[in-house]
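CORE FACILITY INTAKE
Project code: CF-77B
Contact: R.S. (postdoc)
Sample description: multi-component assembly, two entities in total
Requested service: structural model of the whole complex
Turnaround: standard
Below are the sequence entries exactly as provided by the requester. Do not edit them.
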Amino acid sequence: MKPSKSPSPPSLAVWLVKHLERYQTDHAIIEDMQEVFTRICRERGYILACIWYWVQCLDAVAKNTLFNLKWRFVMFKNYFKIALRNLARQKGYSFINITGLAIGMACAIFILLWVQDELNFDGFHENKDNIFRVAALFKDEGDEIYGADTSAPVAPFLKNNYPEIKESTTVNFGWLTGNSRNIIKFGEKSFYTDDLILTDSSFFDIFSFPFLRGDKKTALKNPNSVILTLSTAEKCFGSEDPMNKTIQVDGNPMIVTGVVADVPQNSHLQFDVVLPLTSVRNTNRGFFLTKWDSYGFATYVTLQDGVAINELDRKIEDVIRKNDPNFGDTAAYIFLQPLSKIRLFNVDGSVGFMRYVYIFLTIAVIILLIACFNYMNLSTARSDKRAKEIGLRKVVGSKRANIIRQFFCESLLYAFISFLISILIVILLLPQFNELTGKRIAFDYANPVLLIGFVFVALLTGIIAGSYPALYLSSFIPIEILNKSKSSGVKKSPLRKVLVVFQFALSIGLIISMVIVSSQVRYMRNAEIGFDKNNVITLPVSEKIENIFESFKNELKQNLDIVSISLKSSSPLRSGGTSGTISWEGKKPDQQINWCHPMVDHDYFKTLNMKIAEGRDFSREIQSDLKEGFILNEEAVKQGNIENPIGKQITVNGGNGAIIGVVKNAQLSSLRFTIQPEVYHLSRTFREQFQTLFIKMGSGENARQFNKISASLAHIERVWKKFMPDAPFEYQFLDESLENQYRTETRISRILNTFTILAIFLSCLGLLGLTSFMAEQRTKEIGVRKVLGASTAGIAILLSKEFAKWVLLANIIAWPLAYYVMNKWLQEFANRINIGMGTFIASAAIALIIALLTVSFLTIKAALANPIKSLRYE
Amino acid sequence: LKNLSVNEQIFLIAIWWLKDESYGVRIRDKIKEMTGRTFTFGTLYNTLDNLAKKGYVTSRAVQILNQTGGNKRVYYTTTKAGLEALREARELQEAIWKGLGKQVF
């Protein structure tokens, strides 16, 4: 041991103690601790001494922190007091700030609720992370077609041959019953259901749809059993016990063996009646259950623990090719798609509905930013009023950090008040929001994720809004502020202009998007679609109708307002099946086709007022039409490359005949998709049967006259009841069904409109505050100008000019961004509008007019003011 | 009434005993000698700081020289007010305990 040099204590600990605010006076603590450290070193050794030093050090750190907190709390109390006083003194500005922030936050919260609901789609299943849908990929000469459909034998095959798969189930969404809508009948009551599914018992092992009555293991055992959802059971039986009662499903007696809770709205599987797949085994559609190439079934599986999906995908990809002898050249692969991706992503893994999640999150951020910019602008614009306070605080010893802290406190206070108001707004307007979005979102106060999310939104808003004011205001140099009688805080801040420009760029971007989205929606709803959708009602029919159709038609036609009646072999807006083979004279052997071949009756084109482009319509006079007449639509002619189609031989599923006509394209499906090639025929070439009855009422000008329509409907109902006493009379207007196809787009458009209007409102609110401040600042200038002879109009223009300049500048930023985003969005639609320059110019004009109108009130007021008032103090 | 906590009383008495030698380490040692309690330096300086704020002690910093080289050492002295407060505290204590024998508790 060297007596000359005492060992030194751990340097990190020394450094720590040295930097404690509490003990900085002369660093006496260091010297003292050093002394005792040396003593312990001598008596007990270096290591114990070091431990002792560290204990002392940490204790001092703790004491220091406590002390700081105490003083910080005292300072915070002061900050909040000052903030509250400012808030109360400048009611106008506070109102603008708080309103803006509250609306911004309410929007953000609404959008977060919506996003959370979307992300939790299908999230209620117990083993949600282990459920997969089996999807298929068809590769055909470079074309890749993805489908969520597989065939019925896939599920049992997977389960029996791959030990990795725990459970598998097949779901059919109703077509297997042979009807597009299914009639449920109990006693006197009968109604249609759209959501009938056929499946097997593993379905309820895989998915968590809780059974209220009955046993999930045995409920689907018998082919004649049926499971109902609670509301369906109530519809049939009221409050009676439904178990073991017999109901008629499409005329077949079925015994109720179970009741499940209603399917939540956020489930991609929607059903109200469940039949066993085995119920169709003994019908003429039973063969579908074993047919490998009959797509139209959904297959779901759960996996054993710890199975790698990629490996399993590789093992199962050739299942279809191995089992389907007729597959030919097209390569089909199957793979697993996780349940969580079904709602938001396309089958090929690309962004589907998720895009809207991104879009709305962006909008939430935009609106919050606009609200924050308002706050930043207003609080820095009014920095003059606070400059003296800041100067004085600095003079009496505030550091810059303290001032920064103070202004963050202030913005957080505003954010907090606004947050409370926004929560109130959300609670009050949630029903309206649900109506707008078509969701059933409840404000779940107990959900920690949501609550933390909301508090996070509030904190983030406060911090962003406070950041610039805090940094800007704390940079003031006290001597400059206190020396000058008046500082010019306004001109010193170029960022403020940038913020206004940015704000308007965001608003203009939203306006452009709004205009484009709504014109696309309007375009789809009103586009020339090749047929007359007005005054047509559709009714689902069963195969029985063929026997009675002629007399049914004749009786209907006794009402002169009924123009035409027709039948089709698919649901109203579908074009019919695509399975089977089609060939024609001159078809290239390698040509792959996927055409629809709806069976119709003679008056189909007349009923929908579809125009024949070439050749002729089906005719009752020509007997051969019944078996050998085919009519193509123009798309089929184009895709098939058929020159001079009339008279060419064609074979559809073994039915030979000739093309007798070409009908103009008519798109019944959503314009989001391209038009399908179609072959219409009268005969039963495959297993078609009529599913939909079309009735065209009224004609010409007075078509929509309400009385006439309702009289016709009453007549139709009478006849319907007479001929089809078992089937309920539930019709749909064709134009309404068409509209319904655009529900998602219409909804998105409406949500976008709402948020855009809010964003513009917020921008204008900020602009209003800024203008009133500027007008106030320039009171004297305006007075002098007026004295020197400036006109009122001249001054109003002078004041408005600056804002106009900013708004115009904002366009430069907004246009390319909006163009890029909207162009991308439009790509989703096969039929889309062109983005014209007009949209952009109109949006710019709208923004400019709104901005000028907003400021006009204040500028005119300032310009009209009597100069005596503004100058008399000089 | 000038309230003194027990710790403050101990500190004041220790400083008074130490006279000219009353700086951090010594005060700490003296307290240990008097009462058997050991204080961390954090607590020590917090208490001294409080006493100084109340005006019961004054402090003076002295530059010292030793092997580790020139830190300051702060010496404390009780003030008149401090002694006054101590006296009051003692009177209060005695008044409270008056007439109670040791066997009571």
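Facility notes:
- Chain B has a mean pLDDT of 82.
- Helices of chain B lie at 6-18, 24-35, 41-54, 80-97.
Invoice: internal transfer
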